[in-house]
Amino acid sequence: MNNSLIPEVLESKRVAYECTCGSLQSIHRIYFCRHCHQLRCRDCVSHEVDSQYCQHCLEYIPSIDAKLKKNKCASCFQCPSCMHTLTTRAIITQSPTDSTQTQPKKVFFLICYYCRWSSRDIGIPDQTVASGNWPELETPNAKRLDALFDRYRLLAQREKLDKEKKRISPRSAIILLDKYGITPSLSPKVTATLRAKMAKSSSGFSLSDLKSPTEMNDFETSVATDQIEALDINAYYNTPQDMALGETSTLNQRLMQVETQPDHTSSLYPVSQMLLVKHSLRCKTCDHNLSKPEYNPSSIKFKIQLSAYYHIPELRIKSIPTLKIGQEFRLEMTLQNPTPYALHVTIFDLSESSDESAAIKVPQLVMGLAPKDDTADLDIDKNFQSQFNDDNNFISFRKGNKLGFYINVCPLKTGECRFRIGMKHDFVNTVIQSTREGPNDRQSQISWITHKIWINLGDVCD
Ligand SMILES: [Zn+2]
Ligand SMILES: [Zn+2]
Ligand SMILES: [Zn+2]
Ligand SMILES: [Zn+2]
Ligand SMILES: [Zn+2]
Fold first, then answer.
1. What cellular component GO annotations does this protein have (predicted)?
2. 76 CA to middle of ligand 4, Å?
């Protein structure tokens, strides 16, 4: 019971808002574009990488550097044995080979304080600088991969050049001139240059043709073969009894080093910390930002955050009684206003077809929602009731920016009791307009917005 309560409070699946694209989402998973006045789900926004950073040292890494370093942090490593972060440890040593040297030397190695794995275990030499110039593991097939990268880059370049060539084809330009009656005698200069260009391209002499043969000569194309190494099934299924389990790497450890996939723990190598990205979201329809984080990697704040949770009244079910077919009951729901403006909400019935699983009756009134006020003391505010003059038949309670109301529901079928309602409310859009009176004149625009909301009350008892 307890472990099902938390997701129910934080992310209820019983109340789903319908996105413009038709997908159903909880209010915490959708965005509200205040320019289009529409809900946008994750599929209706374009995702852009804003910045890259290391989650361990919280360093911001420009995307060009990140690309060069293969999206890895240069200074942070993960333990290849337990995936914990490795720490650099310093010790003072006296060089035993060189007796003339009396100065003790400070050296560094990597150690995991969780499982005690250290870079000395696999024979990585100690480093003399703390930042460590840790030797990088040579990736098998690195040469082949680089060659492939180069070739595809070249092909892409060639395609781009071809495309550009096609766009300004001299032949079609001459035809076009002819079509509009511009004869060579009228524009001798233009025609001459076009003809010269045409001669050049027809002789097959162009920039891309000149470059490609020399640069692609040493590229080996892949050849298909039917000679493959036989798979040693015994290594997987008939392991010997005396196999040292402590020295065999686990599946997780192997997948951490996907390039080498060592089957022995002595071949485990420190794993560079992968970089994380901060990403921003953009409305696909109007191109405005719906979410933009701050660049600073240690900041969890947003420059722009248009999550629907902060702009759209949140509808929740207060409690669900036992559902029985044909038995009408009053369903208590709550509405919460997340904005600092007073809102006016109406709920209406949207059930259209006969295959609805419930008949509903919604209150025919405009519900005024008090603005959200973080400083208000909820216990002192007892005069809300009188202020709004509520009908107790429809409104069950009022507390700050929240109110409860009733919907009459009558389940009609067995199975899930599900119905659709509409919610209409006003939305106050504060746009900063630069007018003649002042540079920053705040002007509020009020518009009316309608949402479709699906309510799922769960299974009906027989
Ligand atoms: Zn927009
Ligand atoms: Zn938009
Ligand atoms: Zn959508
Ligand atoms: Zn780092
Ligand atoms: Zn470890």
1. cell cortex; centrosome; dynactin complex; myofibril; stress fiber
2. 4
Angstrom distances, CA of residue 357 to CA of 16, 73, 323, 414 = 16, 55, 12, 8
Pick from 1, 3, 28: which is nearest to 13 by CA? 28
Give the whole-angstrom CA distance, residue 145 versus residue 141. 6
Coil/strand/helix, residue 233: coil
Closest CA to 344 of 376, 313, 374, 383: 313
Q: Report how far residue 380's alpha carbon sits from residue 378's, in angstroms, rounded to the nearest whole number.
A: 6
What does the DSSP 8-state code read for residue 414?
Answer: S
Q: Tell how far the Cα of 39 is from the centroid of ligand 2, in angstroms.
A: 9
Give the pairing of strands 31-33 and 38-40. Answer: antiparallel
Below-70 pLDDT ranges, the chain: 1-11, 95-102, 132, 168-170, 181, 183-184, 186, 199-217, 353-355, 376-387, 431-443
The two tokens of residue 249 are 């790497």
| Domains, in order of start, for the chain | 313-460 (2.60.40.10)
User: Nearest Cα to 270, choosing from 282, 280, 262?
Assistant: 262
What distances in angstroms separate CA 25 from CA 5, 12, 295, 318, 422, one per listed residue? 19, 10, 28, 19, 15
Instruction: Give the list of residues 6+ apart from residue 328 with CB closer than 8 angstroms, or none.
Output: 359, 408, 409, 410
Asked if 306 contacts 290 with a C-beta cutoff of 8 angstroms, the reply is yes
Q: How far is the CA of 80 from the centre of ligand 5 (A)?
A: 7
Say how far apart CA 146 and CA 68 lie, in whole Å.
13
Give the distance (Å) from ligand 1 centre to CA of residue 313: 21
pLDDT mean across residues, the chain: 82
Contact 75, 127 (CB under 8 A): no
